[in-house]
Design brief:
Mean pLDDT: 84
Shape: globular
Radius of gyration: 15 Å
Strand content: 25-35%
Helix content: under 10%
Number of domains: 1
CATH architecture: Trefoil
CATH topology: Trefoil (Acidic Fibroblast Growth Factor, subunit A)
Number of strands: 14
Low-confidence stretches: 10-14
CATH class: Mainly Beta
Largest sheet: 9 strands, antiparallel
Number of helices: 2
Length: about 170
């Protein structure tokens, strides 16, 4: 078990969180260069049965998050409750959703995020990637994914903000 993940969590954290938490929020994406408009002002959304979140795609529900145990994004909304956001460490990796045990078993990397309560900015990083990007043009459902890093001229950087909401319990 990778020590970076296992040391931060108790063994009971792989189950869905109890209703004792507060400080929940939704995440919005914003295109920064006039491209990637398909995700601009769209919520980070999930769909039961898929590990790929989307922004602004029909059939997906805006997710509610908390930072747990200190800076990892955990879903607390009914769809995929208790799942975490991260990815593999490979370049051009899309955001990925999974229970904690899957991250441990496969040596995947959890995203680390921080919030700015003044601007409502959300900054997330994973391994060596501290930029979040989206394909500039819509070619498929994957054009609504966010990716770690900025890989080529066909991707545009995006910024994230958060919106405080009531926790769903």
């Amino acid at each position: 078990m990778p020590s970076s993940i296992s040391s931060a969590f108790s063994t009971s954290s792989s189950t869905a969180p109890s209703c004792t938490y507060t400080d929940c929020f939704k995440i919005l994406a914003h295109s920064t260069s006039g491209t990637g408009a398909q995700v601009d002002n769209q919520y980070f959304s999930v769909k039961t049965g898929t590990n790929a979140p989307r922004f602004g795609l029909t059939g997906y529900t805006p997710a509610i998050f908390r930072l747990y145990p200190s800076d990892n994004l955990q879903i607390v909304s009914p769809e995929l409750n208790g799942y975490y956001v991260g990815s593999t460490i490979a370049a051009n990796s899309a955001f990925y959703l999974a229970p904690l045990q899957e991250y441990i078993d496969n040596a995947y990397q959890l995203a680390s995020c921080s919030r700015d309560p003044t601007t409502y900015g959300l900054v997330c990083a994973m391994a060596q990637f501290n930029t979040v990007s989206v394909p500039k043009t819509v070619t498929s459902q994957y054009s609504y994914n966010l990716y770690w890093g900025l890989y080529s001229d066909s991707y545009a950087p995006v910024t994230l903000t958060y919106e405080p909401v009531d926790c769903p319990c």
